Amino acid sequence: MSYKRFIADLHIHTCLSPCAELDMTPRRIIATALKRGVDIIAVSDHNSAENAEIAVRIAEDRGITVLPAMEITSYEEAHVVALFDTIEKIAAFQEVVYKNLPDGANDERLRAYQLVVNEKDEILSFNKRLLFNATLFSLKDLVDAIHSHGGLAVASHIDREFFSVISQFGFIPEGIQFDALEISYNTKRAKADAMFGAYRSSSWITSSDAHHLDDIGRRTTAFFLEEASFEEIARAFKGERRIEWSDGVME
Amino acid sequence: MLKVTDIAGGLGLDIRVSGDMHREAAGCYISDLLSDVMAHGKEGDIWITLQTHPNIVAVAVIKGLSGIIITNGRSPEPDTVRKAESENITILTTNRTTFETAGLLYNMLMAHGS
Prior knowledge:
The complex is a heterodimer.
Chain A: E1 4-12, H1 26-35, E2 40-46, H2 52-59, E3 65-73, E4 79-83, H3 87-99, E5 115-117, E6 123-126, H4 139-148, E7 152-155, H5 165-169, E8 180-183, H6 189-195, E9 204-206, E10 221-225, H7 230-237, E11 243-244
Parallel strand pairs in A: 1-2, 2-3, 7-8, 8-9
Antiparallel strand pairs in A: 1-10, 3-4, 4-7, 5-6, 10-11
Chain B: H1 4-11, E1 14-17, E2 27-30, H2 34-40, E3 45-49, H3 55-63, E4 67-70, H4 78-87, E5 91-93, H5 98-111
Parallel strand pairs in B: 2-3, 3-4, 4-5
Antiparallel strand pairs in B: 1-5
């Protein structure tokens, strides 16, 4: 079997995330990713996936694969990116996330608009939930919920001093089955190798964690796959396909 | 009635973002989990934390906190400072630990009958 090299950026926020720029519409994200030679992206908003479907739809027949995703906050305030293969699965998962997101309205004084948009960048609605808040899931329950809904769980930016599994727990707790670990764009490969040697048996990726259009593709991971698909990425995370990344942009 | 400016002066805190220093500090809440402060912080509380991320400003705005004290010699991120300036949220810093800061502040608040 021959494998093709695909460049992936599996952590991109849209304008639905309160911390992302308003021009992070799925249409512009996909156009920018295409321009930068990225083959596979995941749109991963905080505790919501309401822009995922439009992103997947815009990407159809454009030579780029979009995985619907979500970055969920556990109650210990560790971030986890959940990747899915279908809109149906992420919609079912979103339902349980919303049930576990404490009530609270996004405060207009913050001017942190949470936009649900269409393929023409028109605003369809403002998400009124307080998406930056933590869910009520423990880390373990969160990872289990991702798996039971058919998703892959990636520990977000484990090198960061806040909102990462390691910043919140001190280490990756035993018995929590992440499918991959993400290193942020801030940390060079050699430093990551030195810092996280204990977790070498896991698959590592790096992503942009883009909040601005300019961030897209500032860090990417190369996957050697039969095709650009969720199933193939799942195989890569299991060690059945090659994954490569270094400090620069993979070309 | 204890004002934020009295606490900054009394504890020798560094003023990183001045905000409204004449606000009354009604009490204090200590937590490094933002969601915990969202759930249990009370309006007017001054908040002691290790967190330096811009989201601390959002929490302070939503909960109506009187200010934020960052301990252990940590510094707010540049984005946090910018957000706090635009939202008029006081950010104070100290080299002391959370324990020491809390102890001193507790005595101060008790002496003022808060």
